[in-house]
Specification:
It is a single chain. By secondary structure, the chain is an all-alpha fold. It has one domain. It is built from 16 helices and no strands.
Length: about 400
């Protein structure tokens, strides 16, 4: 092996081990993940400077999908090329995928769906989503116009629960944001632009694949009876249409898999609660759903399907981000989209999370305690999860 290849191999191994360590220790959701990344990649290892990191984060916040995973992919690309991006993604994602597949297997093998600690994990889901709503509402709905957009999104997604309601709301909110905020966005100053080692040709190929798969698989699903096509389409579409991070994927996945009977609502909410207990991206919840349906092979396939859009989008847009983010029309539309995310989250908090988890005064009391532990006492998420499991066993005994 020549020195150049040896150097590349060392770089890829370094990317894998560092991202895997982060995947094992990064609790707290996407915002916390970005803090871990900054500490490791910018301050400790100096793989990129502050401006480049800020620019990459801005791009990933702009795109649909799991922002923290996309930032990790982008850093891997900057450090080790396209393969470096794949390795970074695998390292950061694999620990939580394995944990959730094991949990699904235990849930199926021992039939623990009625266990008290499962009820506790459902209440944890209520607390985590409520906390996410508070933080996002403060940042994404600071004025009355965006608060009205959020209210509109809440009402529509609550009363019109179809597979297309979230998509329709996001598109309409983007148009309203474009009308209301394009002049304000025009006045905002851009941050310095980072350069990413991806050619425009590669970017175009990835974007073409993203949109091609998004439109092709629903058509194939309607004209064939192959279960794996329907399976892939549901996960891929969910991963393609999520603005605002992992918590917003909940209503999309719930509407794709619970009404069809592929997974029960109890199994769905139990898995969502368990997903809070593991580090890494919340999108790995798909691994749990896939494993419940088709074992560990289904878990890996679901993970591939739901993360593929994020990978294609980040690689596809890197070469064009300089011109894209300076467009005031896109900035204005994004402000409207982000406001609608808050309403979609509130809708998801009520149905199915709240209505299936808070069934009486004891459940509400446990939820209040867990919420206080998370919001006021600032305890880490894994403590909240363990406390919820214990509390669920106590109140059900």
């Amino acid at each position: 092996m020549n020195e150049r290849n040896k150097s590349k191999l060392q770089t890829w191994l370094e990317i894998f081990f560092i991202s895997a360590r982060l995947g094992l220790t990064s609790f707290g959701g996407p915002i916390a993940h970005l803090g871990y990344f900054h500490e490791e990649y910018v301050r400790r290892r100096k793989w990129l400077d502050e401006k480049s990191y800020a620019d990459l984060v801005a791009l990933c916040q702009f795109l649909p999908g799991p922002a923290s995973s996309q930032v990790g992919i982008g850093i891997g690309v900057m450090r080790g090329g396209l393969l470096g991006g794949v390795i970074s993604f695998i390292g950061f994602t694999l620990p939580s995928v394995i944990a959730l597949i094991i949990f699904a297997s235990i849930l199926h093998t021992f039939d623990i769906g009625e266990a008290g600690w499962i009820s506790g994990l459902k209440i944890v889901a209520v607390v985590v989503v409520a906390h996410a709503i508070l933080g996002m509402a403060k940042n994404l709905t600071p004025d009355i116009q965006r608060q009205a957009i959020s209210l509109f999104a809440l009402i529509i997604t609550l009363l019109w629960q179809t597979a297309y309601s979230q998509v329709s709301v996001i598109l309409l909110a983007g148009f309203i944001g474009y009308i209301l905020y394009r002049k304000q966005a025009l006045q905002d100053k851009d941050q310095p632009i980072a350069q990413f080692p991806v050619s425009r040709r590669v970017g175009i190929i990835c974007l073409t694949l993203f949109f091609g798969l998004l439109f092709l698989f629903p058509i194939l699903r309607n004209i064939t009876s192959l279960e794996w096509i329907a399976f892939f389409d549901s996960f891929y579409r969910s991963g393609s249409l999520v603005f605002g991070g992992g918590h917003v994927v909940l209503p999309l996945l719930e509407q794709e898999f619970v009404p069809t009977g592929w997974i029960s609502e109890q199994q769905f909410l139990a898995g969502y609660g368990a997903a809070q207990a593991v580090p890494g991206p919340l999108f790995t919840f798909a691994a749990y759903i896939g494993a419940v349906m088709n074992g560990w092979q289904g878990g890996l396939f679901a993970t591939f399907a739901i993360f593929l859009p994020a990978f294609l989008l980040i690689i596809g847009t890197l070469p064009f981000w300089n011109s894209l983010r300076s467009n005031p029309n896109i900035k204005g539309a994004l402000m409207g989209v982000n406001a609608s995310v808050v309403g979609i989250l509130i809708s998801a908090l009520y149905q199915p999370i709240w209505t299936s988890s808070i069934l009486g005064p004891k459940d509400f009391a446990l939820g209040a305690i867990l919420f206080s532990m998370l919001v006021y006492w600032k305890l880490p998420p894994w403590v909240i999860v363990l406390s919820g499991a214990v509390g669920g066993m106590l109140i059900s005994s």
